[in-house]
């Protein structure tokens, strides 16, 4: 069963739609938790959904094995209806001893997919990889790495 909590520390005085230090905590199921927070956010209502435009963002997914994926970016858009989130601008994904840098990342909890794309660079203990796209199934952890142009190759550098 999904549970949500919203914590607002302080509202900006000039606009009732602008919020400082916004924090959402979501239980996606009994084993998976998602938390997203931002330094500054703006609430926008679009087609019966509350869209939150965020600045200086940090998202955390903790799965059933207690493995944490941390996502930071300069900006994000969070949909409070389905918890989908699009991170943009200096995206950094950290899990275990791995880091992935990109321009964009989309979390889609309905389809259990993390899509990382545009200027993707992976750094890990075995080396470095450069690709256009990485798709990760949140449940199975199956990863699909590919280029937009099928004639291009994923670049690997081994340590």
Tell me about this structure.
- The chain is an all-beta fold.
- It has one domain (3-158): Lipopolysaccharide (LPS) transport protein A like domain (lipopolysaccharide transport protein A fold), CATH 2.60.450.
- The chain contains no helices and 11 strands.
- Strands 1, 2, 3, 4, 5, 6, 7, 8, 9, 10 and 11 form an 11-stranded antiparallel sheet that branches.
- Strand 2 and strand 3 (33-46) form a beta hairpin.
- The protein is globular and about 50 Å long.
- The protein starts with a strand and ends with a strand.
- The model is unreliable at 8-14 (pLDDT under 50).
Summarize the structure.
The protein has 159 residues and is mainly beta. The protein has strands at 3-11, 18-27, 33-46, 49-62, 68-79, 85-95, 98-108, 113-124, 127-137, 143-146, 155-158.
């Amino acid at each position: 069963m999904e549970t949500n909590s919203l914590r607002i520390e302080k509202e900006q005085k000039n606009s009732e739609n602008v919020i400082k230090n916004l924090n959402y905590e979501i239980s996606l199921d009994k084993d998976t938790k998602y938390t997203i927070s931002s330094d500054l956010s703006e609430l926008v209502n679009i087609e019966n959904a509350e869209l939150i435009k965020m600045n200086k963002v940090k998202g955390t997914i903790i799965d059933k094995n207690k493995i944490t994926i941390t996502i930071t970016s300069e900006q994000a858009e969070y949909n409070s209806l389905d918890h989908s989130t699009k991170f943009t601008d200096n995206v950094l994904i950290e899990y275990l001893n791995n880091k992935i840098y990109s321009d964009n990342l989309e979390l889609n909890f309905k389809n259990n997919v993390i899509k990382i794309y545009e200027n993707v660079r992976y750094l890990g203990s075995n080396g470095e990889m450069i690709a256009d796209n990485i798709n990760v199934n949140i449940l199975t952890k199956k990863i699909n790495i590919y280029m937009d142009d099928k004639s291009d190759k994923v670049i690997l550098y081994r340590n």
